[in-house]
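Z., the sequence and structure:
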Amino acid sequence: MDFTVEDVGTLIREIEKEVRGKAAKSLVAEGLTVPQYSVLSQLSRTPMASNADIARAVSVTPQTTILIVQNLLKRELIARHHTEGRRVIATTLTDQGARLLTQADGHVSAARKEVFARITAEEMASLVTILRKLKS
């Protein structure tokens, strides 16, 4: 089989793009974009994050992060807090944001399952093994 590392990288990006597209369509029902969902999801894993922390974690620019945070603040899905001894303002999920994230997680999970349903459980296990090996 003839393939290059670039071919593998392209395939990974195409699969991610497909999952992202399916997730984007289903997140509309919750009034969220994929970047907004990513920020909410990150805040559930890393409470009290700064805008810079969020930007790095979800791979968006600081300017984009500011816009996303402003939109989520208006919807009262997140809250900002001044932290003691830090000039940085930290962001957390509100209860409303956590509830919406739970609903949105179901949509994103369904999108992933739809794409990965094309492979067998054995193939999935092999894929996970390979990806973990590459990650380490």
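The mean pLDDT is 93. The chain has one domain: 5-135.

Let me know what you think.
H.
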